[in-house]
Amino acid sequence: MTQVFNFSAGPAVLPKAVLQQAAAEMLDWHGSGMSVMEMSHRGPEFIAIYEQAETDLRELLAVPVNYRILFMQGGGLGQNAIVPLNLLGRAAQPATIDFVHTGSWSGKSVKEAKRYANVNVAASAEANGFTAVPPQETWRLTPGAAYLHVCTNETIDGVEFDFAPTVQGDVPLVADMSSHILSRSVDVAKYGVIFAGAQKNIGPAGLTLAIVRDDLLDSALPICPGVFNWRAVADADSMLNTPPTYAIYIAGLVFAHLKRLGGVAAIERTNIEKARLLYTALDADDFYRNRVAPEARSRMNVPFYLRDESLNDLFLAGAKARGLLQLKGHKSVGGMRASIYNAMPIEGVQALVDYLNEFAGR
Ligand code: PMP
Protein backbone atom coordinates (compact mmCIF):
# COMPACT_ATOMS: atom_id res chain seq x y z
CA MET A 1 0.00 0.00 0.00
CA THR A 2 1.33 3.44 -0.85
CA GLN A 3 1.86 5.88 2.01
CA VAL A 4 -0.88 8.47 2.06
CA PHE A 5 -1.71 11.34 4.38
CA ASN A 6 -5.39 12.06 4.73
CA PHE A 7 -6.30 15.68 5.49
CA SER A 8 -10.08 15.16 5.50
CA ALA A 9 -12.11 17.35 7.86
CA GLY A 10 -14.20 14.37 8.88
CA PRO A 11 -14.73 11.51 8.81
CA ALA A 12 -11.01 11.72 9.18
CA VAL A 13 -7.74 9.93 9.70
CA LEU A 14 -7.54 7.45 12.58
CA PRO A 15 -4.40 6.18 14.28
CA LYS A 16 -2.91 3.34 12.22
CA ALA A 17 -2.29 1.29 15.37
CA VAL A 18 -5.99 1.50 16.21
CA LEU A 19 -7.07 0.35 12.76
CA GLN A 20 -4.58 -2.52 12.91
CA GLN A 21 -5.90 -3.64 16.26
CA ALA A 22 -9.49 -3.39 15.05
CA ALA A 23 -8.58 -5.43 11.98
CA ALA A 24 -6.92 -8.10 14.10
CA GLU A 25 -9.97 -8.27 16.39
CA MET A 26 -12.57 -7.95 13.64
CA LEU A 27 -13.68 -11.59 13.49
CA ASP A 28 -13.02 -12.64 17.04
CA TRP A 29 -12.90 -10.15 19.87
CA HIS A 30 -10.69 -11.43 22.72
CA GLY A 31 -11.57 -15.08 22.12
CA SER A 32 -15.31 -14.43 22.33
CA GLY A 33 -15.81 -15.88 18.85
CA MET A 34 -17.75 -12.74 17.94
CA SER A 35 -17.04 -9.52 16.18
CA VAL A 36 -17.82 -6.46 18.31
CA MET A 37 -20.38 -5.62 15.65
CA GLU A 38 -22.25 -8.83 16.44
CA MET A 39 -22.46 -8.41 20.20
CA SER A 40 -25.51 -7.48 22.18
CA HIS A 41 -25.04 -4.06 23.69
CA ARG A 42 -26.29 -5.54 26.95
CA GLY A 43 -23.88 -8.49 27.03
CA PRO A 44 -20.87 -8.61 29.38
CA GLU A 45 -18.36 -8.29 26.51
CA PHE A 46 -19.75 -5.05 25.18
CA ILE A 47 -20.45 -3.63 28.64
CA ALA A 48 -16.74 -4.13 29.41
CA ILE A 49 -15.77 -2.31 26.21
CA TYR A 50 -18.15 0.52 26.99
CA GLU A 51 -17.08 0.93 30.61
CA GLN A 52 -13.39 1.00 29.70
CA ALA A 53 -14.04 3.62 27.00
CA GLU A 54 -15.92 5.80 29.45
CA THR A 55 -13.27 5.44 32.15
CA ASP A 56 -10.47 6.29 29.73
CA LEU A 57 -12.27 9.32 28.31
CA ARG A 58 -13.01 10.58 31.82
CA GLU A 59 -9.34 10.26 32.66
CA LEU A 60 -8.10 11.87 29.42
CA LEU A 61 -10.31 14.94 29.81
CA ALA A 62 -10.19 14.94 33.62
CA VAL A 63 -13.98 15.04 33.65
CA PRO A 64 -15.12 15.90 37.19
CA VAL A 65 -17.34 13.44 39.06
CA ASN A 66 -20.37 15.72 38.84
CA TYR A 67 -20.50 15.35 35.06
CA ARG A 68 -22.07 12.55 33.05
CA ILE A 69 -20.56 11.33 29.81
CA LEU A 70 -23.28 10.35 27.34
CA PHE A 71 -22.60 8.24 24.26
CA MET A 72 -25.30 9.26 21.84
CA GLN A 73 -26.17 9.41 18.13
CA GLY A 74 -27.30 12.21 15.86
CA GLY A 75 -23.98 13.99 15.33
CA GLY A 76 -23.03 17.55 16.10
CA LEU A 77 -26.18 18.83 14.43
CA GLY A 78 -28.25 16.41 16.48
CA GLN A 79 -26.87 17.93 19.68
CA ASN A 80 -27.39 21.39 18.22
CA ALA A 81 -31.04 20.53 17.91
CA ILE A 82 -31.45 18.97 21.33
CA VAL A 83 -29.42 21.35 23.49
CA PRO A 84 -32.31 23.84 23.53
CA LEU A 85 -34.79 21.02 24.12
CA ASN A 86 -32.75 19.83 27.10
CA LEU A 87 -31.95 23.19 28.67
CA LEU A 88 -34.81 25.59 28.07
CA GLY A 89 -36.85 24.13 30.90
CA ARG A 90 -34.55 25.88 33.37
CA ALA A 91 -35.28 29.37 32.04
CA ALA A 92 -38.25 31.66 32.56
CA GLN A 93 -40.26 31.93 29.34
CA PRO A 94 -39.82 33.54 26.93
CA ALA A 95 -36.22 32.41 27.21
CA THR A 96 -33.19 33.96 25.53
CA ILE A 97 -30.15 32.00 24.42
CA ASP A 98 -26.87 33.85 23.91
CA PHE A 99 -24.53 32.91 21.07
CA VAL A 100 -21.12 33.95 19.89
CA HIS A 101 -21.11 33.72 16.11
CA THR A 102 -17.62 32.76 14.99
CA GLY A 103 -18.32 30.85 11.78
CA SER A 104 -20.44 28.34 9.92
CA TRP A 105 -21.15 25.94 12.74
CA SER A 106 -22.14 28.46 15.40
CA GLY A 107 -24.24 30.07 12.65
CA LYS A 108 -26.15 26.83 12.20
CA SER A 109 -26.66 26.62 15.97
CA VAL A 110 -28.18 30.10 16.00
CA LYS A 111 -30.58 29.15 13.24
CA GLU A 112 -31.64 25.95 14.95
CA ALA A 113 -32.19 27.59 18.34
CA LYS A 114 -34.53 30.19 16.84
CA ARG A 115 -37.16 27.47 16.64
CA TYR A 116 -37.37 27.36 20.41
CA ALA A 117 -36.32 30.64 21.96
CA ASN A 118 -35.26 34.21 21.48
CA VAL A 119 -31.72 34.34 20.28
CA ASN A 120 -29.20 37.02 21.15
CA VAL A 121 -26.04 37.05 19.10
CA ALA A 122 -23.84 38.49 21.82
CA ALA A 123 -20.92 38.94 19.45
CA SER A 124 -20.27 38.13 15.82
CA ALA A 125 -17.18 37.89 13.68
CA GLU A 126 -19.22 37.88 10.48
CA ALA A 127 -18.28 41.43 9.48
CA ASN A 128 -14.60 40.49 9.31
CA GLY A 129 -15.28 37.27 7.43
CA PHE A 130 -14.90 35.02 10.50
CA THR A 131 -11.19 35.60 10.95
CA ALA A 132 -11.11 36.12 14.71
CA VAL A 133 -12.92 35.32 17.95
CA PRO A 134 -14.55 38.54 19.19
CA PRO A 135 -12.83 39.53 22.47
CA GLN A 136 -14.84 38.53 25.50
CA GLU A 137 -15.05 42.19 26.71
CA THR A 138 -17.16 43.04 23.63
CA TRP A 139 -19.80 40.35 24.15
CA ARG A 140 -23.25 41.72 24.95
CA LEU A 141 -24.53 38.91 27.18
CA THR A 142 -28.13 38.69 28.38
CA PRO A 143 -28.51 38.68 32.19
CA GLY A 144 -30.39 35.48 33.04
CA ALA A 145 -29.90 33.89 29.62
CA ALA A 146 -30.94 30.24 29.42
CA TYR A 147 -27.36 29.46 28.39
CA LEU A 148 -24.45 30.72 26.31
CA HIS A 149 -23.49 28.66 23.25
CA VAL A 150 -20.08 28.76 21.57
CA CYS A 151 -18.34 26.63 18.98
CA THR A 152 -14.78 26.50 20.25
CA ASN A 153 -13.32 25.30 16.97
CA GLU A 154 -14.96 26.34 13.71
CA THR A 155 -14.07 23.50 11.37
CA ILE A 156 -14.83 25.36 8.14
CA ASP A 157 -13.44 28.78 9.02
CA GLY A 158 -10.39 27.49 10.88
CA VAL A 159 -11.06 29.64 13.95
CA GLU A 160 -10.35 28.28 17.43
CA PHE A 161 -10.90 29.80 20.87
CA ASP A 162 -7.64 30.14 22.77
CA PHE A 163 -9.52 30.83 26.00
CA ALA A 164 -12.49 29.44 27.92
CA PRO A 165 -15.29 32.01 27.93
CA THR A 166 -16.56 33.25 31.27
CA VAL A 167 -20.26 33.49 31.97
CA GLN A 168 -22.31 35.73 34.23
CA GLY A 169 -23.88 34.19 37.32
CA ASP A 170 -25.09 30.63 36.86
CA VAL A 171 -25.66 30.84 33.09
CA PRO A 172 -24.45 27.50 31.71
CA LEU A 173 -21.77 27.54 29.04
CA VAL A 174 -22.42 25.12 26.16
CA ALA A 175 -19.59 24.30 23.78
CA ASP A 176 -19.56 22.49 20.46
CA MET A 177 -16.08 20.92 20.50
CA SER A 178 -16.72 18.54 17.61
CA SER A 179 -13.52 19.28 15.75
CA HIS A 180 -11.00 19.77 18.54
CA ILE A 181 -12.06 17.66 21.48
CA LEU A 182 -9.07 15.80 22.94
CA SER A 183 -6.62 17.94 20.96
CA ARG A 184 -5.87 20.31 23.84
CA SER A 185 -6.39 20.52 27.57
CA VAL A 186 -9.73 21.91 28.65
CA ASP A 187 -11.03 22.70 32.08
CA VAL A 188 -14.32 20.83 31.84
CA ALA A 189 -15.55 22.51 35.03
CA LYS A 190 -15.85 25.81 33.15
CA TYR A 191 -18.54 24.29 30.91
CA GLY A 192 -22.07 23.16 31.61
CA VAL A 193 -22.26 21.04 28.46
CA ILE A 194 -19.63 19.93 25.97
CA PHE A 195 -20.66 18.03 22.88
CA ALA A 196 -18.82 16.56 19.93
CA GLY A 197 -19.46 14.35 16.95
CA ALA A 198 -16.87 11.59 17.00
CA GLN A 199 -15.87 11.53 13.36
CA LYS A 200 -13.02 14.04 13.54
CA ASN A 201 -10.82 13.52 16.54
CA ILE A 202 -12.32 10.43 18.15
CA GLY A 203 -13.49 7.66 15.86
CA PRO A 204 -16.05 6.69 13.26
CA ALA A 205 -19.14 8.70 12.37
CA GLY A 206 -22.29 7.69 14.22
CA LEU A 207 -21.15 8.34 17.78
CA THR A 208 -21.76 11.67 19.46
CA LEU A 209 -20.49 12.59 22.91
CA ALA A 210 -22.26 14.85 25.34
CA ILE A 211 -20.62 15.72 28.64
CA VAL A 212 -23.27 17.24 30.87
CA ARG A 213 -23.03 18.66 34.38
CA ASP A 214 -25.39 16.82 36.73
CA ASP A 215 -27.55 19.82 37.58
CA LEU A 216 -28.33 20.37 33.88
CA LEU A 217 -29.80 16.93 33.31
CA ASP A 218 -33.24 17.91 34.55
CA SER A 219 -34.10 21.00 32.54
CA ALA A 220 -35.70 19.50 29.45
CA LEU A 221 -38.82 20.88 27.84
CA PRO A 222 -41.77 18.46 27.87
CA ILE A 223 -41.54 18.19 24.07
CA CYS A 224 -37.97 16.83 24.18
CA PRO A 225 -38.06 13.36 22.60
CA GLY A 226 -37.39 10.58 25.11
CA VAL A 227 -34.34 9.13 23.37
CA PHE A 228 -32.75 12.58 23.20
CA ASN A 229 -33.44 13.50 26.80
CA TRP A 230 -30.07 13.69 28.57
CA ARG A 231 -31.51 12.62 31.93
CA ALA A 232 -33.13 9.55 30.38
CA VAL A 233 -29.94 8.69 28.49
CA ALA A 234 -27.83 9.18 31.63
CA ASP A 235 -30.13 7.03 33.74
CA ALA A 236 -29.86 4.25 31.17
CA ASP A 237 -26.03 4.53 31.01
CA SER A 238 -26.33 5.50 27.33
CA MET A 239 -28.25 2.29 26.61
CA LEU A 240 -31.72 3.72 26.40
CA ASN A 241 -31.77 2.51 22.85
CA THR A 242 -29.10 0.58 20.97
CA PRO A 243 -25.95 2.71 21.04
CA PRO A 244 -23.53 2.83 18.10
CA THR A 245 -21.59 -0.10 19.48
CA TYR A 246 -18.83 -0.45 16.91
CA ALA A 247 -18.14 3.29 16.92
CA ILE A 248 -17.89 3.19 20.72
CA TYR A 249 -15.45 0.28 20.48
CA ILE A 250 -13.20 2.17 18.03
CA ALA A 251 -13.44 5.33 20.13
CA GLY A 252 -12.33 3.24 23.11
CA LEU A 253 -9.29 2.02 21.17
CA VAL A 254 -8.48 5.65 20.30
CA PHE A 255 -8.74 6.66 23.96
CA ALA A 256 -6.40 3.85 25.01
CA HIS A 257 -4.00 4.87 22.23
CA LEU A 258 -4.02 8.50 23.43
CA LYS A 259 -3.26 7.35 26.95
CA ARG A 260 -0.29 5.37 25.67
CA LEU A 261 0.97 8.50 23.91
CA GLY A 262 0.92 10.37 27.21
CA GLY A 263 -2.59 11.79 27.25
CA VAL A 264 -4.01 15.11 26.11
CA ALA A 265 -1.09 17.25 27.32
CA ALA A 266 1.34 15.21 25.21
CA ILE A 267 -0.81 15.24 22.10
CA GLU A 268 -1.37 18.98 22.55
CA ARG A 269 2.38 19.59 22.39
CA THR A 270 2.56 17.68 19.11
CA ASN A 271 -0.47 19.54 17.78
CA ILE A 272 1.14 22.90 18.58
CA GLU A 273 4.25 21.85 16.67
CA LYS A 274 2.26 20.57 13.67
CA ALA A 275 0.24 23.79 13.45
CA ARG A 276 3.37 25.93 13.77
CA LEU A 277 5.03 24.05 10.91
CA LEU A 278 2.06 24.45 8.60
CA TYR A 279 1.18 28.10 9.33
CA THR A 280 4.85 29.09 9.04
CA ALA A 281 4.97 27.57 5.57
CA LEU A 282 1.71 29.28 4.53
CA ASP A 283 2.97 32.65 5.79
CA ALA A 284 6.41 32.30 4.24
CA ASP A 285 5.48 33.98 0.98
CA ASP A 286 2.34 35.49 -0.46
CA PHE A 287 1.66 32.53 -2.72
CA TYR A 288 -0.68 31.16 -0.03
CA ARG A 289 -3.07 33.01 2.22
CA ASN A 290 -4.75 32.30 5.56
CA ARG A 291 -6.54 35.35 6.93
CA VAL A 292 -7.30 34.17 10.45
CA ALA A 293 -5.81 36.27 13.26
CA PRO A 294 -2.77 34.46 14.70
CA GLU A 295 -4.24 33.91 18.17
CA ALA A 296 -7.45 32.45 16.67
CA ARG A 297 -5.86 30.11 14.14
CA SER A 298 -7.12 26.59 14.56
CA ARG A 299 -4.57 23.91 15.34
CA MET A 300 -6.89 21.34 13.79
CA ASN A 301 -8.37 22.84 10.62
CA VAL A 302 -6.20 25.03 8.44
CA PRO A 303 -8.05 26.64 5.54
CA PHE A 304 -5.90 28.41 2.96
CA TYR A 305 -6.16 29.90 -0.50
CA LEU A 306 -3.79 30.01 -3.42
CA ARG A 307 -3.15 33.59 -4.52
CA ASP A 308 -3.90 32.44 -8.06
CA GLU A 309 -7.02 30.37 -7.68
CA SER A 310 -6.87 29.21 -11.29
CA LEU A 311 -4.12 26.86 -10.05
CA ASN A 312 -6.43 25.09 -7.57
CA ASP A 313 -7.01 21.99 -9.68
CA LEU A 314 -3.34 21.67 -10.52
CA PHE A 315 -2.46 22.02 -6.83
CA LEU A 316 -4.92 19.32 -5.81
CA ALA A 317 -3.84 16.94 -8.56
CA GLY A 318 -0.18 17.34 -7.62
CA ALA A 319 -1.03 16.78 -3.97
CA LYS A 320 -2.97 13.63 -4.75
CA ALA A 321 -0.10 12.28 -6.83
CA ARG A 322 2.07 12.60 -3.69
CA GLY A 323 -0.48 10.85 -1.50
CA LEU A 324 -1.71 14.08 0.12
CA LEU A 325 -5.44 13.50 0.10
CA GLN A 326 -8.68 15.42 0.69
CA LEU A 327 -7.22 18.94 0.74
CA LYS A 328 -10.08 20.59 -1.12
CA GLY A 329 -11.75 23.31 0.97
CA HIS A 330 -15.35 23.19 2.13
CA LYS A 331 -17.74 23.98 -0.70
CA SER A 332 -19.11 27.03 1.12
CA VAL A 333 -15.73 28.80 1.27
CA GLY A 334 -13.66 27.20 -1.51
CA GLY A 335 -9.88 27.12 -1.48
CA MET A 336 -8.05 24.43 0.44
CA ARG A 337 -8.27 23.02 3.92
CA ALA A 338 -5.80 20.79 5.71
CA SER A 339 -7.26 19.12 8.77
CA ILE A 340 -4.46 17.97 11.01
CA TYR A 341 -6.24 16.13 13.79
CA ASN A 342 -4.55 14.14 16.55
CA ALA A 343 -4.07 11.15 14.26
CA MET A 344 -2.21 13.13 11.58
CA PRO A 345 1.46 12.37 12.15
CA ILE A 346 3.96 15.22 12.02
CA GLU A 347 5.47 13.48 8.98
CA GLY A 348 2.19 14.14 7.16
CA VAL A 349 2.35 17.83 7.95
CA GLN A 350 6.00 17.91 6.87
CA ALA A 351 5.09 16.19 3.59
CA LEU A 352 2.41 18.83 2.99
CA VAL A 353 4.84 21.65 3.83
CA ASP A 354 7.40 20.20 1.40
CA TYR A 355 4.75 20.10 -1.30
CA LEU A 356 3.57 23.66 -0.54
CA ASN A 357 7.14 24.92 -0.95
CA GLU A 358 7.74 22.92 -4.08
CA PHE A 359 4.49 24.02 -5.72
CA ALA A 360 5.07 27.68 -4.89
CA GLY A 361 8.61 27.37 -6.27
CA ARG A 362 7.36 26.02 -9.56
N1 PMP B 1 -20.15 21.20 14.67
C1 PMP B 1 -18.91 21.25 14.15
C2 PMP B 1 -17.90 22.14 14.78
C3 PMP B 1 -18.61 20.48 13.03
O1 PMP B 1 -17.38 20.53 12.49
C4 PMP B 1 -19.58 19.63 12.48
C5 PMP B 1 -19.29 18.72 11.30
N2 PMP B 1 -18.40 19.17 10.39
C6 PMP B 1 -20.85 19.63 13.05
C7 PMP B 1 -21.10 20.41 14.16
C8 PMP B 1 -21.94 18.78 12.49
O2 PMP B 1 -21.66 17.49 12.82
P1 PMP B 1 -22.52 16.26 12.25
O3 PMP B 1 -22.22 16.18 10.80
O4 PMP B 1 -21.96 15.13 13.06
O5 PMP B 1 -23.93 16.54 12.54
From TrEMBL:
GO terms for biological process: L-serine biosynthetic process; pyridoxine biosynthetic process. Homodimer. Pyridoxal 5'-phosphate binds at W105, T155, D176, Q199, N241, T242. Keywords: Amino-acid biosynthesis, Aminotransferase, Cytoplasm, Pyridoxal phosphate, Pyridoxine biosynthesis, Serine biosynthesis, Transferase. GO terms for molecular function: O-phospho-L-serine:2-oxoglutarate aminotransferase activity; pyridoxal phosphate binding. Its EC number is 2.6.1.52. Binds 1 pyridoxal phosphate per subunit. Signal peptide: none annotated. Its cofactor is pyridoxal 5'-phosphate. This is Phosphoserine aminotransferase. The gene is serC. InterPro entries: Aminotrans_V_dom, Aminotrans_V_PyrdxlP_BS, Pser_aminoTfrase, PyrdxlP-dep_Trfase, PyrdxlP-dep_Trfase_major, PyrdxlP-dep_Trfase_small. GO terms for cellular component: cytoplasm. Belongs to the class-V pyridoxal-phosphate-dependent aminotransferase family. SerC subfamily. It catalyses: 4-(phosphooxy)-L-threonine + 2-oxoglutarate = (R)-3-hydroxy-2-oxo-4-phosphooxybutanoate + L-glutamate; O-phospho-L-serine + 2-oxoglutarate = 3-phosphooxypyruvate + L-glutamate. Catalyzes the reversible conversion of 3-phosphohydroxypyruvate to phosphoserine and of 3-hydroxy-2-oxo-4-phosphonooxybutanoate to phosphohydroxythreonine.
